[in-house]
Amino acid sequence: MRVLAIESSCDETAVALVSCGPEDFRVEASLVSSQVELHRPFGGVVPEVASRRHLEVLYPLTEEVFRRHRPEELDLVAVTAGPGLPGSLVVGVSFAKALAYALGKPLAAADHVKAHTLAIFLEETPDFPFLSLVVSGGHTALFLVKSPTEHLLLGHTRDDAAGEAFDKVARLLGLGYPGGPVISRLAERGDPRKIALPRPMLESPDLDFSFSGLKTAVLNLVRSGRSFETADLCASFEEAVCEVLVEKARRALKALGLSTLVVSGGVAANRRLRQKFLEMGKEEGVRVLFPSPEYCTDNAAMVAVAGYFAYQDSGPAGLDLDIHARSLFPRLELSLT
Ligand code: ATP
Ligand code: MG
Ligand code: FE
């Protein structure tokens, strides 16, 4: 089944064409137009500016795909219906509805957070059930993934997401936006043990996270006037984030007796994070999988996979499909003792 997918939940406009089978996914086109430069002067995403740019870019991006692949060859139009910025989501969903209607093809709704997890199917085929850690700009969450469509929430961040923490720390160090790539680049030259930073929530008996305290610790250090090398601070901060993520995932794997872990979302592009997760996988005898960096950050190929599975599971979405700013996942409470 050939799926055309549209993604516009935040500051990336993306269109992809993916040939989807139950076990075999082949990306035929995956175009991403990033708005990073547009939002850089503001130090973060400005919602109104984002939706306007989605509106300008979606049509030419889709035309570009149709220059190489005929619209008649499509079987399904998939779109991110949430979570994300409401104004941005509305642009993508309206565009996808119009496209599906005009071409006479069914429409499928994809969840952006599930799509980050399901991106792995573009390159690998994990066995169910598996543990998924989504670490992105807006989310940090652990899921028990029982099937492509059944994702049970085990724990999530109580305040900032991991990516958000990278972005905020970069901002207060004057390193620009987005923070993840620049911090990880500087961290390569720094000493991760040089500056003592907290490991938030490692003591708590649940699978939740918290990153705002870590950001405050960095802020306090900067304000204290103590001298430090920026590279050391970046490395120490990155190490603290990675350690918490790895240890919580290790606990979840043990508690559930799972042998596969998928780590996805923009922060999963981080090299140190990938290295530490692979080390943990070796220690625990767990298969650790990551999508390629281009499928960790926002893209529409992952939306095609999520839309395909949603369509297989519950059929087409109607033309009255609505957007949702937040996703509500069924929660599985684990007692970790
Ligand atoms: P969400 O998926 O939660 O709605 P989003 O779509 O904005 O949020 P993504 O595009 O998946 O998030 O990821 C963007 C985030 O990933 C940003 O916070 C960015 O700083 C972070 N990021 C990107 N590359 C790296 C990296 N190499 N190291 C750490 N963080 C990174
Ligand atoms: Mg983004
Ligand atoms: Fe995302």
TrEMBL record:
UniProt GO MF annotations: iron ion binding; tRNA N(6)-L-threonylcarbamoyladenine synthase activity
Residue intervals of the Gcp-like domain: 28-304
The protein's name: tRNA N6-adenosine threonylcarbamoyltransferase
Catalysed reaction equations from the record: L-threonylcarbamoyladenylate + adenosine(37) in tRNA = N(6)-L-threonylcarbamoyladenosine(37) in tRNA + AMP + H(+)
Compartments in which it is found: Cytoplasm
Protein family (similarity comment): Belongs to the KAE1 / TsaD family.
Cofactor-binding details, from the entry: Binds 1 Fe(2+) ion per subunit.
Superkingdom classification of source: Bacteria
Enzyme class, first EC level, given as a word: transferase
Record: residues binding Fe cation: H112, H116, D298
EC number: 2.3.1.234
Organism: Thermosulfurimonas marina
Co-factor(s): Fe(2+)
InterPro entries: ATPase_NBD, Gcp-like_dom, KAE1/TsaD, TsaD
Function (record text): Required for the formation of a threonylcarbamoyl group on adenosine at position 37 (t(6)A37) in tRNAs that read codons beginning with adenine. Is involved in the transfer of the threonylcarbamoyl moiety of threonylcarbamoyl-AMP (TC-AMP) to the N6 group of A37, together with TsaE and TsaB. TsaD likely plays a direct catalytic role in this reaction.
